[in-house]
Each structure stands twice: as C-alpha cells, then as structure tokens.
Design brief:
With about 350 residues, this protein is an alpha/beta fold. It has helices spanning about 15-30, 80-90, 115, 130-150, 165-180, 220-230, 265-275, 295, 325-345; strands at about 5-10, 35-40, 50, 55, 60, 70-75, 95, 125-130, 150-160, 240-245, 250-260, 280, 300-310, 315-325. Strands 5-2-1-6-7-8 form a six-stranded parallel β-sheet, with helices on both faces. The chain is globular and about 60 Å long.
Length: about 350
C-alpha cells in the first residue's frame, strides 16, 4: 500500500475569523500536511499561532510566499485574492478562494462539494468558495432539485453579524450594552463600513447587506441569485433574495420558498433531506423542534426544518435553513474542497 501524499498548505488571512477556523479544521481533520504556512498582512506578521502543539509564525503574504505550496486557502478579502491568487498559480499552487473575486468568472469552478464536486476537476488553478448564504441554501435544495426539479426560489435571509467581521460583532455587543444602560448607540460599521450612513444593529434588523446596485437589490442578494444558478448549472432557475442583518453572532438563517417542477410527497421530501450528506433534519413542530442559530453555531452541518407544502401552490415547499456562516458557509466548505483535492492526487 502506497504512502499517503503530504501537502504543503498555505492559509492566507490566517488571523481572520475564517482563517482561524480553517486552521482549526486542518488540525482536527488530520489533513495530510507536510508544511503549513500561515500568511496575513504586514500588520499581523510576526504573530505566533499554535498548531498541533507547536508554534507557527505568521508571515506577510507576498507573491514569493507560494514557492513550493501545493494548496492555498484564501480568506483575506477580494483585493488580496485578486492580487495574490494569480501569483500563487504561477508557482503551481491550487487556490481555494473564499472571496467574491472569482466566483462568477466563467472559467472558475464555484463549488459546494455536496452539490457539484465534479466541477473541481475543471479548475485552472483556482476554485471559488460561494457566498455563505448561498452555500447552505443550494446544499439543502440539491436533493429536491435532483428528484423533482426546481423552477423558482424565493429566499429571505437573517444573517449573523460575524459575516461582517470581528469589528461588527464588537459593535453589536457594545450597542447592546449601551441600549440596556439607557444610552443611544453611535453606529460606526453596519450596514456597510464604507458608506456614510450607519444603522444600529442591536435590537434591530437591517434590510441591507453590502451596497445597493441599480436594480434595487444589494450585491449580497445578487450574489445569491447568480451563484445559485451557476452552482446548480441551471440558468433557467428563477431566484430572488432579500438579505437582512440581525443581531446574532454566529449562524445564518433562511426562509426559503421553492417551487418544484413535479408533484411531491412532503414525507418523501423530508426523507430526501434527512438522507442528504451534511444535512441534519430538525422538523417536529409538535415538540417545537426546528433549526436555531444558537444550536448550529460551531457545527459543520446545515440544519433544515419547518418543511411544509405551500397553501397557495401545491407544488411549492417552504423550508427554514440554518448553518454556521463561518464553517459550512466558509471554512468547512473550503477544507472539504482541499480534502477532495488531496484524495485525488
């Protein structure tokens, strides 16, 4: 029996929330590592991270960082990926990118392993990780799509502040304390740090994630619409989305209405979802069992419940989908792709 190949792996954005989860997963999953290189901005270079009982010093991410690296997992922002991914590819590195930089590039596979793992082999040096809210939805809808076909999807998301970074979490906690103390918070980050007007997130819901585009949708909503069609390989899908930020730390929740092309049995639909890889069925209204963000936090799985036939359209289902946005929505999906690449080589 041949020995397992070991890989030189780089994590770009190692000090960020997603990067930290990637490092943890590589350790817990016993990924076949020869060398682990941790890369970040010059500001974080020199910091040390413990990995399997030893300390690794974080280095500044520069083009030369990828010499001898087999796989690089990027989660340092779109600008960093646009700059460094082409440089990494020149060194023969396979890049798994968590940003939106390459998702809609027609030559770049956009992969959720439970949905379209076969697309990984089409890569030209880069594989894109979809948007967090898209991942959990398409993962859940895939078994229904395969069995019945899908014509239309309407999704409303209830997204955790961790999707906007550690500073957004800190802002929510600070605002919550201020409100409880009878003070009026001064918003500084949400909904979009680069926009002049900010809104309170504590005890509130903000119906804006990312900037608006000319059609009245936000970039986040357009990501869900366009990425869903690309991942499912079906441009005929009708998809619309409303994305909302709520005062939850970890775990995106989604209310999804899906129109199927064929008649269906609700119990069969439940069985399909219960048997789907990476899906946990939590659907017992009599016992108030349904997915909660507090239960999904820290878990790799995607949770689905509140499954019911729509009252106005007999071919439509309503579902409630919850997943940890930093794990299946980002780090875990990326590590799954890396594990598949490792097994294939």
């Amino acid at each position: 029996m041949s020995e397992q190949k070991l890989f030189n792996v780089a994590v770009v954005g190692a000090t960020g929330a997603v990067g930290e989860q990637i490092i943890r997963l590589l350790s817990e999953r016993d990924f076949p590592l020869n060398e682990l290189k941790l890369l970040s901005s010059a500001r974080s270079a020199g910091k040390k991270v413990e990995f399997k009982g030893r300390e690794i010093t974080i280095e500044e991410a520069v083009p030369e960082s990828f010499e001898g690296i087999d796989i690089a997992l990027f989660s340092a922002g779109g600008d960093v990926s646009r700059t460094l991914v082409p440089e990494a590819i020149k060194h023969g590195t396979v890049c798994i990118d968590n940003t939106s930089a390459f998702r809609m590039d027609p030559d770049t596979p956009l992969v959720v392993p439970e949905v379209n793992i076969d697309r990984i082999s089409d890569h030209r040096g880069i594989i894109a990780n979809p948007n967090c809210s898209t991942i959990q939805m398409v993962q859940t809808l895939k078994p229904l799509y395969d069995r019945y076909g899908i014509s239309r999807i309407i999704v409303s998301t209830y997204q955790a502040v961790s999707g906007a970074g550690a500073s957004a979490i800190e802002e929510m906690l600070r605002q919550s304390r201020e409100v409880l103390e009878g003070r009026r918070p001064e918003p500084q980050i949400l909904p979009v740090g680069s926009l002049q007007r900010k809104h309170q997130i504590a005890f509130n819901a903000i119906p804006q994630i990312d900037k608006f585009v000319e059609n009245g949708f936000t970039y986040e909503e357009m990501k869900m619409i366009n990425e869903t069609k690309k991942i499912m390989g079906d441009e005929s899908l009708e998809v619309t989305a409303t994305c909302v930020r709520i005062p939850v730390v970890y775990g995106h929740s989604e209310s999804v209405y899906v129109e199927l092309k064929e008649d269906f049995d609700v119990e069969e639909a439940r069985r399909l979802l219960a048997d789907a890889p990476g899906i946990v069925l939590q659907d017992n209204p009599a016992e108030q069992l349904y997915p909660l963000a507090t239960d999904a936090a820290g878990r790799n799985e995607t949770f689905v419940g509140r499954i019911r036939r729509d009252l106005s359209n007999p071919r439509a289902l309503n579902l409630w989908i919850v997943s940890d946005n930093l794990l299946k929505g980002a780090a875990w999906n990326a590590v799954q792709i890396a594990e598949y690449i490792a097994v294939q080589q």
